[in-house]
């Protein structure tokens, strides 16, 4: 009887929400046994209070401590070299005031399911009051633009720790999800739209960057990557590739360095002062089960959970290409691949080592940390089976006297790519994922009707295989 009741309940829930993918996945995840996804499993109040303080200290200081170890006894704020000078524009970026119609439209487009920020104002209330509050909010946004200041509350984030993997008692196995006040998102949308359009209209962003840009995607970046390799293989060449992975890339961006780069992109005067105020004196606090830690000041990184932050990151990282002498670069945000093709593997090794030395200098001057752990930054050599056998060589590419791990297969933007450009890696990965989900489905099958099981199969397994 209990089994039939569970099956009927799950069938009814899935049937009611089948047109809402978000709710469908939430329901499916509740059916499948899963690992904890947050740190909320501890119920003791004193223990939870201690845990919250630990998370608060760790999230606020991890990036700064990483940088202090990597770059000791150096004035962080003004170390970078002037690569941006090669990209300097004569155009000047100027803010425009926003209209009430823009503010009201953005308020009405809010998702009711959005989490509340530190101000605890629910999106439902804000959305329903859009007509009434649009004009006052427009005045505040325009005052922010005019005075080059951002309200302090709009720079305060509420942080939720989400479990990644490993030991759930260790704070380093959690990632922070930052939630900013909803009103801050409106002023950020206005700033983002104006600055992004300025950058694109003046062609200031390098063409090889595919992250956080309109009409670009991981799929386009991966397609370009594969097309370049296949083209060189068709021309009888080998292709060397360094897949670069940065440690906590967004969190280690130096505010002083970023602000020093912005004038090359036309940001000066009041506009530069606005971005300065936007970045400095930001705070965050961790909240778990109604327990909050003390607010911490964030001294490095672009704001997590923000709209302007990702744009600031690609502007910061935009001048990397100016440091490279021999190779081609493809970037999706911080995911970067460096490619060089030649018929001689030794020439490839020499060219890539020269460029990695230049990139090492760029990373040092810009306080960026390369992740050299196995499975992160890695080296590949592409070619036909015949040419790879003939070369008989593994590329020996170094970074700061450390040899980068050489592999024959790498996961690039979700695609398994091997050194022959075959599809075997993707097939194997899809098979393993489908098999794992099929086992999960089998474990809960007795609590599902046949129709519910078919629905779950189509959504979680068939979607992988097609």
What does this structure look like?
The mean pLDDT is 88. The chain has helices at 2-16, 21-31, 45-70, 100-108, 123-128, 130-147, 182-201, 218-234, 255-261, 269-279, 308-316, 345-365, 385-391, 424-444, 450-465; strands spanning 156-163, 174-179, 238-244, 282-288, 291-292, 296-298, 328-332, 335-342, 378-382, 398-399, 402-403, 405-406, 409-412, 415-418. The protein is built from 15 helices and 14 strands. It folds into three domains: 51-207 and 255-299, no CATH class; 218-247 and 320-422, Alpha-Beta Plaits, CATH 3.30.70; 424-465. The protein is globular, with a radius of gyration of 25 Å. α4 crosses α6 (130-147) and α14 (424-444) runs antiparallel to α15 (450-465). Strands 1, 2, 4, 5 and 6 form a five-stranded mixed β-sheet that branches. Strands 7-8-3-9-12 form a five-stranded mixed β-sheet, sandwiched between helices. A two-stranded antiparallel sheet has the order 10-11. It is of the alpha+beta class and 466 residues long.
Quick summary:
The chain is α+β, with helices and mostly antiparallel strands. The chain has 15 helices and 14 strands.
Layout of strands and helices, then pairs:
Layout: H1 2-16, H2 21-31, H3 45-70, H4 100-108, H5 123-128, H6 130-147, E1 156-163, E2 174-179, H7 182-201, H8 218-234, E3 238-244, H9 255-261, H10 269-279, E4 282-288, E5 291-292, E6 296-298, H11 308-316, E7 328-332, E8 335-342, H12 345-365, E9 378-382, H13 385-391, E10 398-399, E11 402-403, E12 405-406, E13 409-412, E14 415-418, H14 424-444, H15 450-465
Parallel strand pairs: 1-4, 9-12
Antiparallel strand pairs: 1-2, 3-8, 3-9, 4-5, 4-6, 7-8, 10-11, 13-14
Helix pairs in contact: 4-6, 14-15
